[in-house]
């Protein structure tokens, strides 16, 4: 009889813990990205690299981590000023393809409703100008 009582107390304790544990609540996650020029024809020290590979661009940061159902806001700046320095921010899994003209700022927002790892990129400079959106399951 005593063993059942202890198990009953333990079960009641675990039930109280489960009921009092905070539930996951989706939140707004804001990220600030900028375009970067890793290899540039404007830098004389990179002349050989540009001749062999062309100019190389990227996003910084290039990994964004959120939870499922979070509201995601991405504020992106294209810091380059040349006439041929336009980019895009393309996240196909979420139907996003925004133009980033030189010296511009674009704000993108969406709900991360799919779990997984999704690539984003610039349509003009992929695969090098790319990154990942990591959507973890809601707790």
UniProtKB/TrEMBL annotation:
The keyword NADP does not apply. This is Cupredoxin domain-containing protein. Pfam families: Cupredoxin_1. It comes from Acidiphilium iwatense. InterPro entries: Cupredoxin, EfeO_Cupredoxin. The lineage of its organism: Bacteria, Pseudomonadati, Pseudomonadota, Alphaproteobacteria, Acetobacterales. The keyword Signal applies. Keywords: Signal. Residues 1-25 form the signal peptide.
């Amino acid at each position: 009889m005593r063993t059942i009582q202890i198990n009953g107390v333990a079960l009641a304790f675990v039930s109280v813990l489960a009921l009092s544990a905070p539930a996951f609540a989706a939140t707004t996650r804001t990220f600030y990205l900028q375009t970067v020029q890793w290899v540039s024809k404007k830098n004389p020290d990179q002349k050989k690299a540009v001749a062999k590979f062309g100019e190389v661009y990227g996003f910084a940061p290039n990994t964004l981590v959120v939870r499922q159902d979070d509201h995601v806001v991405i504020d992106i700046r294209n810091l380059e000023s040349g006439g041929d320095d336009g980019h895009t921010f393309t996240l196909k899994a979420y139907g996003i393809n925004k133009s980033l003209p030189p010296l511009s700022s674009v704000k993108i927002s969406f709900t991360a409703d799919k779990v997984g790892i999704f690539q984003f990129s610039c349509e003009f400079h992929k695969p090098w100008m790319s990154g990942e959106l990591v959507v973890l399951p809601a707790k």
